[in-house]
Amino acid sequence: MTVAGIDLSANEFWSLPLPERAASFALLRAQPRPPFFAEPEVTFAEMGPGYYALVRHADIVEASKHPEVFSSRRGATSIADLPVEFNEFYGSMINMDDPRHARLRRIVSRAFTPRMIARFEDDVRRAATAIVDDLLATGPCDFVSHVAARLPLKIICDMMGIPDDQYDMVLAQTNVILSGFDPEFLSEDPDEVVIQLLGAGQALADLVTGLAAARAEEPAEDLVSALARANIDGEQLTSAELASFFVLLVVAGNETTRTALSHALMLLTAYPEQRALLVADLEGRIAGAVEEIVRYASPVLFMRRTVTRDYTMNGQDYREGDKAVLYYYSGNRDEAVFSDPERFDITRAPNPHVGFGAPGPHFCLGAHLARRELTVMLRELLTRVPDITAGEPDRLLSSFINGIKRLPCQFTG
Ligand code: HEM
After folding, report:
1. Is the CB of 261 under 6 A from ligand 1?
2. Atom of ligand 1 nearest to the CA of 101
3. Which residues, including other chains, have CB under 8 Å from residue 300's CB and lie 6 or more apart?
4. Which of 17, 141, 215, 316 is most buried, by CB atoms within 10 Å?
5. Is 76 near ligand 1, meaning CB less than 6 Å away?
6. Which letter does DSSP use for residue 40 in this model?
7. Confidence class of residue 176 from pLDDT cuts 50, 70 and 90?
């Protein structure tokens, strides 16, 4: 393997086995400067100028700390500049800079108050118990659809106040939005892809707009009501902002946590001694295990920034308009920060991973909730289905989400 042979824009790269992918990033990190790549061809966007791949932890942290230079406004979740209507639907605050970002985050954070989160914690426990009840009744099955996908979806829907009969619809639409290049979910015809993506966003937007209208009449104890009420200095979400935030929330909250849970089972299967360590002191070690799972799995592989002015960072000159892609997966394996980074070590301390993004204004809004979901589900599984193991995963072909489509699980239970 040579540096010249690595192309982060090639679909083939993202279908490599994970150890080969990790070895490629190690080679890139060993280069004196961030490598530059031509952009991937995206059927529905014009070919852009290319991008710097920020593969080192220090570059990712520094760029995240300087949002006035490394801007999210031109799109954080795609390397290509997407048509305006895409950013409107899927963007919400992840694709904004201050002051718009700060305003939205302020309003939305109001709804993520400790009281709200405490309510969700009971929901998480109840949901995890019910899912494991079903798993035990079903027997060995696909872990993704029966367990990993169900918990985050149920939690987000409960939080928002979405009725149970809409879950399947929400799941199907998020699968389309975050399908990457995977032909299982998206058409090969570029015009059709645009229709599918916009249609998925619109269906979710319609759902929440209808819900918000109902809650305006009759408020309930859910996030939609709280968001509709949240009002800071006369600031309130418009209905378009609410719809777009909801799309971000279901997309950001579902696939990521699902991916982390699927990797968790794979890791605990691949590293039985780490599993034994965890089980020996579940309450004492679970928090460390969750952080290490997020580091090792890096469910979100990258976020993008666009440089707003000429700037030098860690010895590299950037010009206004340059794109920089923050490869969290690589930063989380940076040997300058993590000793023996390919080792899955639930006792790793400190563990300054960037799986939820690096410190800065866009740091994951749902990190606390995601940690709760992972903790509660792993505790439930390891106590009630102690011999559960994972088989061979069917991985999602995506440069953005380190996803698992299907994962057979076995247990005697
Ligand atoms: C293991 C699970 C998760 C991972 C790995 C993850 C990862 C991330 C990352 C890397 C970012 C981007 C940071 C940046 O651009 O600098 C982010 C942002 C965000 N996440 Fe998460 N996330 C997870 C779970 C969740 C959950 C459960 C929710 C919602 C309930 C959520 C909601 C958000 C939102 C709203 C943002 C945008 C924040 C902003 O732009 O200010 N995430 N997440």
Report:
1. no
2. 41
3. 256, 328, 355, 357, 400, 401, 402
4. 215
5. yes
6. P
7. confident
